[in-house]
Design goal:
This protein is an alpha/beta fold. The chain folds into two domains: 119 residues, Aspartate Aminotransferase, domain 1 (Alpha-Beta Complex), CATH 3.90.1150.10; 235 residues, Aspartate Aminotransferase, domain 2. The chain is 40% helix and 18% strand. It has 13 helices and 14 strands. A seven-stranded mixed beta sheet has the order 4-10-9-8-7-5-6, sandwiched between helices. α4 links the parallel β5 and β6. α1 packs antiparallel against α10 and α3 runs parallel beside α4. The longest helix is centred in the last third of the chain and has 19 residues. It is globular. The protein starts with 10 loop residues before the first strand and ends with a helix.
Length: 376
């Protein structure tokens, strides 16, 4: 079967919750900018100051040198998440690869949720460890995999905190309990959680009533979502494991570090996230408002513990047709279809921002209802 390659659109301008898309004013419901901080004046001022001081980047590998901005970002991330230390990577994907290719290898076993992010799957393949999978968020299946791999030198359990195609949270209470019972390292990808879910936006484990802190638990994440849209990622957790990554991880040692502009963007966004609850409160009000509007129009959504709202469609062609009609109506709501999700489970993946106005969300929901009716 030939893979469907969607037409790429051209974003010419952004303002609030809207973009100029191929020349048309459009409500943007497909961006990761959950807290609306990528256009916040405080963030832009800090980014511009970093550009003035350092230019577009230092042009040096992080193993050789750093800047006060990078050090402050790593320290503030660790403090915000309540862990001992953090290391900055060039992306969330490289952070996942850095952990999976450094902390396990031949003779070890990685036990991975079947619906984990592609960067986790790729990191597993590169690790040289044996890989076992379990059904999405199935704690009983995870226990079976752990029972079956008792002879491994070391086991690492890896899961998305928030699953990006529907927004549901991993059942971390059960997963962490099993990790402790079977003496396994636990890795949680917090790309869609940091700054958004849990108390004060501290992530999926706190959402589940747990601490982020543990001797055999690591968090990875992305700076490109809630934290101002900055390019980059991180690994956070116990200091000995973070220091081992800095000493051995090829994706940390042999890759250029974050630009100073990205470090300044993420640092300022993180401080706003920590000190100003306003953006997160607006985000969750907007999420609730859109979901209520979708219910009013009888549009069904997947259960979600995050700001991701996935509207159920089913057929791949219908999903693409609805997304195309929405673009013409001034709403960008990308269709997600096979092979990204299972065949027959296509959906529209909506991402609300604190930058949206409620009138924009009402307009988008009405356009969705019209597009559903016209393609039914």
């Amino acid at each position: 079967m030939t893979a469907h390659v969607p037409a790429r659109r051209m974003i010419e301008r952004r303002q609030g919750g809207r973009i100029l898309l191929d020349g048309l004013e459009t409500i943007m419901l497909g961006a990761n900018d959950y807290l609306g901080l990528s256009t916040d004046e405080r963030v832009l001022a800090a980014t511009n100051e970093a550009l003035r001081l350092y230019g577009s980047g230092t042009g040096i590998y992080p193993v050789f040198a750093t800047t006060p901005l990078h050090e402050a970002l790593a320290d503030n991330l660790a403090s915000f998440l309540g862990v001992e230390a953090a290391a900055l990577f060039s992306s969330g994907g490289s952070a996942n690869a850095g952990v999976l290719t450094t902390l396990v290898g031949a003779g070890d076993v990685i036990i991975s949720d079947r619906l984990n992010h592609a960067s986790i799957i790729d990191g597993c393949r590169l690790s040289r460890a044996e890989v076992e999978t379990y059904e999405n968020r199935n704690v009983a299946g995870l226990r079976q995999a752990l029972e079956a791999t008792r002879r491994a030198k070391r086991r690492l359990i890896v899961t998305d905190g928030i699953f990006s195609m529907e927004g549901g949270a991993a059942p971390l209470a059960g997963i962490r309990s099993l990790a402790q019972e079977f003496d396994a390292l636990l890795l949680i990808d917090e790309a869609h959680a940091t700054g958004v879910v849990g108390p004060d936006g501290t992530g999926t484990a706190p959402l589940c009533g747990l601490s982020n802190r543990g001797p055999d638990m690591l968090l990875t994440g992305s700076l490109s979502k809630a934290l101002g849209g900055a390019g980059g990622g991180f690994v956070a957790g116990p200091r000995p494991l973070i220091e081992r990554l800095k000493a051995q991880s090829r994706s940390w040692i042999f890759t250029m570090g974050l630009t100073t502009a990205n470090a300044a963007t993420a640092l300022t966004a993180l401080k706003i996230c920590r000190d100003d609850p306003g953006p997160r409160e607006r985000l969750w009000r907007n999420v609730a408002h859109l979901r209520e509007a979708l219910r009013f129009h009888a549009l069904a959504c997947h259960d979600s513990d995050s700001a991701i709202t996935a509207v159920k469609i089913g057929g791949e062609e219908r999903a693409r047709a609805i997304a195309a009609r929405l673009v013409r109506a001034g709403v960008f709501a990308p269709a997600v279809a096979f092979p990204i999700v299972a065949q027959g489970q296509a959906r529209l993946r909506l991402q609300v921002s604190a930058a949206h106005e409620t009138a924009e969300l009402d307009e988008a929901a009405a356009a969705l209802a019209t597009a559903f009716a016209e393609t039914g």
